[in-house]
Design a protein that fits this description.
Elements (H helix, E strand, L loop, with lengths): L2 H59 L5 H5 L12 H32 L4 H13 L4 H16 L5 H25 L3 H9 L4 H29 L3 H5 L33 H9 L4 H34 L4
Length: 319
């Protein structure tokens, strides 16, 4: 066999392999381009739909965003109606929700990630917490109606609403806390243990400060969701028309602090908007659009604050 024939026999299979590799590479790149186009189309559809809704809300509701709209109570006359009781109710309910839900959620996340033993019971709890994050909110409303309103007798009050929404956001905060703690490198813990720190000292002084940006993001996302919830509050008996404010938490008489507002009736911005939408007049629909704009603005501000603090805190992290 000559040298030329040997080179030809070895070159042909090699070229075939190269051609097959090039074809597979082209096919993969073509599939990647198709996937990118599909992703861009899906994202564009969502953004266009959101932009259309925002434009429609702005066109309908912006003329109603006057000072009187924020300082007037709801009225049977659309031109005189306002959202005073609604935004005050939203503020009070969210305050109770954050006061109860955030400490419980963060503490539960720390315990499950740092202290809980790894056994079947822990696994069951983890699975249930993850599943609760996807349970429809109406289920939490039914639970609160039976447990808090009828069981504990807390009534259809701001306190009950805060407890209900705290239950709703609890799984979100627990999952976010656990993921944030899990992202902290183990070398940080090992270095602290190496100089004699206790488990709580390691958690308090090293793990939690490093995990705070993620925890904060989860807290803000949970509170933003609670702010827009309607179904559980309607279930526990939130009112749709309130022309008064609850008693002030601070007054001029001893002991100067009052908790009577916790057990007053309430309404919130989503319920007020729903009440206006259900009315036939076009002016009430403009009021509902304005209330929707206020709600969207509060949600965007909360998310903006979360992004700002997360950016600032992450800049300080070095590992």
């Amino acid at each position: 066999m000559s040298i030329a024939s040997t080179m030809t026999d070895e070159t042909v299979p090699s070229q075939a392999v190269d051609n097959e590799f090039i074809d597979r590479l082209k096919r993969r790149r073509r599939n990647e381009i198709i996937f990118i186009c599909f992703g861009l189309a899906a994202t564009s559809i969502g953004l266009i739909a959101l932009a259309a809704l925002m434009v429609d809300l702005a066109v309908s509701g912006y003329p109603r965003l006057t000072a009187e709209f924020f300082t007037n109570f709801p009225s049977r006359r659309a031109g005189q109606a306002g959202i005073l009781s609604a935004w005050v109710g939203s503020l009070l309910v969210i305050s109770v929700t954050a006061f109860i839900g955030v400490p419980l959620g963060v503490a539960a996340g720390i315990y499950l990630e740092e202290y809980a033993p790894k056994n079947i019971w822990t696994n069951i709890i983890e699975i249930n917490v993850s599943n609760l994050a996807g349970v429809p909110s109406i289920v939490f409303g039914l639970l609160a109606l039976g447990l808090f309103v009828y069981g504990f007798g807390t009534g259809r009050s701001i306190f009950t609403a805060g407890l209900t929404l705290a239950l709703l956001i609890l799984p979100i905060i627990i999952v976010a806390t656990r993921e944030s703690i899990r992202a902290v490198p183990w070398s940080l813990r090992e270095a602290a243990y190496g100089i004699g720190a206790t488990k709580w000292q390691v958690t308090q002084d090293h793990v939690l400060p490093a995990a705070i940006p993620g925890v904060l993001t989860g807290v803000i996302i949970g509170i933003s969701r609670a702010l827009g919830e309607t179904a559980p509050l309607v279930t526990i008996g939130a009112l749709s028309f309130i022309a008064f404010l609850p008693p002030a938490p601070i007054n001029g008489e001893f002991p100067f602090v009052s908790f009577a507002w916790l057990f007053e009736g309430f309404t919130v911005l989503p319920i007020q908007a729903f009440n206006w939408v259900s009315r036939p007049g076009a002016d009430f629909h403009s009021n509902a659009a304005a209330a929707g704009l206020v709600l969207m603005a509060i949600t965007l501000i909360l998310n903006g604050v979360a992004i700002y603090f997360r950016y600032r805190l992450r800049k300080k992290l070095q590992w």
